[in-house]
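Our preliminary data section would be incomplete without showing what the modeling component actually yields. Below, a chain of 123 amino acids is followed by its predicted structure, encoded as tokens that our downstream tools consume directly.
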Amino acid sequence: QVRLVESGGGLVQAGGSLRLSCAASGRTFSSYPMGWFRQAPGKEREFVAAISWNDGNTDYADSVKGRFTISRDNAKNTVYLQMTSLKPEDTAVYYCAADLYYAGSQAGPYHYWGQGTQVTVSS
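Predicted structure:
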């Protein structure tokens, strides 16, 4: 079992930055690829970024490339999402996800999810 807890959300003006954290507990965190997703009101959950468990490979949605950076600190059992140049359309609840065998952009295969943290970007 893996438990994920997100933090770091809040209200920020357009152009600002936030860093989200996802703290993991339970089984060996370092073996799990991790992903970030987001869901805006009335919309489906969408992929934001993912990071492999071992070689640091990352993947990003086109909408956040060049603005967001995913990273992980296995010693702290934490994955981060550094968000810069935020836009009002980035407003959503952000979720981290983990799965032992999957590190892609589809939400369905991820087995473990956090409760989400709200990010609101004002114009």
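The chain has a mean pLDDT of 94. The two ends are 40 Å apart (CA to CA). Preliminary results of this kind motivate Aim 1 of the renewal.
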